[in-house]
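User: Reviewer 2 asked us to show a designed sequence for the structure in our supplementary figure. I'm pasting the structure tokens here. Could you produce the per-position amino acids so we can include them in the response letter?
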């Protein structure tokens, strides 16, 4: 996924799949996540739900630039769990996705190739069970305007499928929105037309 892409692929809702190998159970949970905080919440919940599991391995990828990812083997041999999980996320070119695989040990050692296969398969199964959706890359803008312009601004927000991030209304209205990358020029043009609306890009 290049950084100048206008869309990205992610999953629509959480999903779950189970894979068994020689008595060991691998429970794969896939989640759509926007932030590391939301991922951590899911991980804590699963650790509470599965306290007897021996491993809670995971991988996630966030954002558009490919640099925000993490893998964790949680005590499994290095490279045998987190990497295969991330490999499945990447093979579908997904981002803003986390997969946590909870393992219950079945008494037989699977060896590194067996573990790689199990974590990879469980992840692939979970990702197959949830719809993959295309979402627009959003560029964030901060808007400030007189409340008399509110209806005009909201029309533009709606017309161009912008996301409202934050809204404050006092004497002046303040609005943080995410504009789909492919529509930024059109939205700026429309806002300029309203004259008294101040806007600037924020990171």
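Assistant: Here is a per-position design you can include in the supplement:
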């Amino acid at each position: 996924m290049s950084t100048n892409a206008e869309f990205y692929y992610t999953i629509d809702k959480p999903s779950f799949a189970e894979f068994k190998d020689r008595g060991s159970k691998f429970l794969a949970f896939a989640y759509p996540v926007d932030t590391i905080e939301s991922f951590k919440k899911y991980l804590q919940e699963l650790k509470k739900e599965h306290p007897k599991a021996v491993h809670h391995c995971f991988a996630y990828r966030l954002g558009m630039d490919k640099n925000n990812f993490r893998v964790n083997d949680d005590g499994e041999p290095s490279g045998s769990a987190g990497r295969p999980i991330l490999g499945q996320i990447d093979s579908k070119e997904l981002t803003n996705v986390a997969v946590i695989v909870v393992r219950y040990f079945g008494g037989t050692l699977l060896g590194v190739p067996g573990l790689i296969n199990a974590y990879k398969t469980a992840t692939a199964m979970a990702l197959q069970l949830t719809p993959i959706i295309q979402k627009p890359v959003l560029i964030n803008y901060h808007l400030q305007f007189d409340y008399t312009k509110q209806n005009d601004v909201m029309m533009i927000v709606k017309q161009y499928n912008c996301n409202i991030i934050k809204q404050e209304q006092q004497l002046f209205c303040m609005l943080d929105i995410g504009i789909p990358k492919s529509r930024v020029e059109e939205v700026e043009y429309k806002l300029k037309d309203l004259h008294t609306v101040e806007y600037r890009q924020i990171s």
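For the response letter, you might also mention the following. The helical segments are 36-49, 82-91, 111-128, 150-159, 184-193. The chain has five helices and eleven strands.
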